[in-house]
Amino acid sequence: MAAGALREALAQWPARAKPWVRTRAAPLAGPFRGLLTHVDHMATWRAALLGIVLGAGIASLPWLWLGWLCVGVAVALVWSAEPLAVEDMPVARPAATQATADMPRLLDLGPPRRAFPFETVTLDRMGRETSRTRGVATGWAEELAPGVVLEMIEFPGGRFEMGAAADEEYAQESEKPQHQVAVSAFAMARFAVTQAQWAVVATWPQVARGLLPSPSGFRGEDLPVERVSWHDAVEFCARLTAKTGRLYRLPTEAEWEYAARAGTKTPFAFGETITPEVVNYDGNYPYAGAATGLYRGRTIRSGELAVANAFGLFDMHGNVWEWCQDPWHGDYDGAPADGRAWEEEGNDKHRVLRGGSWIALARVCRSAYRYWAEPDERSGNVGFRVLCSVARTR
After folding, report:
1. Among 26, 97, 181, 377, which has the highest number of CB atoms less than 10 A from its own CB?
2. pLDDT 10s digits, 309-323
3. What is the DSSP letter of 22?
4. Of 3.40.50.720, 2.40.50.140, 3.90.1580.10, 3.40.50.11810, which CATH number belongs to 104-392?
């Protein structure tokens, strides 16, 4: 029984001894500190063999009793102990990885995640508010310069019905046939790109073409940038990608509509209609049973109306048209069902625009409405917002 107890104690010795070795012996080891650290990570039998060698060396010195003790302990370890389990070995992890190990994330690396509170509303056919809901979106803030950040909202992929329903008022043939599309997870800018953001990125190294620092007709740092072509928007995304290492680009048409609908099937993310209180459009031309209302005749500050869709995205309807990746197709016959850009057999001389603008009629701001412009065209009611894919460039 005594032999068994001794054997058990000797078998447990490495696990009990390791903390002592690291915290007490290692600081005193001087030249042997690296050796002790190496021993701490070795399998038990290797440590034991090293103990025999050390013990034999010590045995040749005046401290004969200490040498034989080392040899005895080493022999007992070889006889009784199992190799150190992998989980017993210390593993170094970045602190940020440990802190967010249980948090689902689109990107393996990147800025810290943030919460973005928002409010969304539901309107009935007459434009009356029937509900107001608070929500919190998650994402990150990409710092472009001191005081200038690009706020990104991330959300999971999913399936949705793209295009206009058969009975949707003012539905166009270009919005049909309605079809189911599956999109992968991505992140999208909380607002359309602002003039402040544009001005910063315009100073960054050129990728394919130069950018004017102040192209907009309506001036204001918090106003959406406009008078930018499709090619300009692509260059902006390329510079952002090169600077951050995260893959920024224009959304595909399917991704844009998925984000705009935010889980809804109604003509607008806010329900059956819109009003100038929640969308910047030409209020003289309402939709459904809504009354006529304010026409501002210009862009407004991003997020000024303080109402987002259910994903936490602002101004997906109205204010400025937004460029998409896709070339124009006259309808959805043969459209891909996986959310990618529809490049095949498209008209490269025309690129898709979505969302309507400050000068648009209400029906043009519907989630399903499609429009196009030439990729070199610059207009005072056309801007864009960026999307970030899960892939990284470095």
Report:
1. 181
2. 999 999 999 999 999
3. I
4. 3.90.1580.10
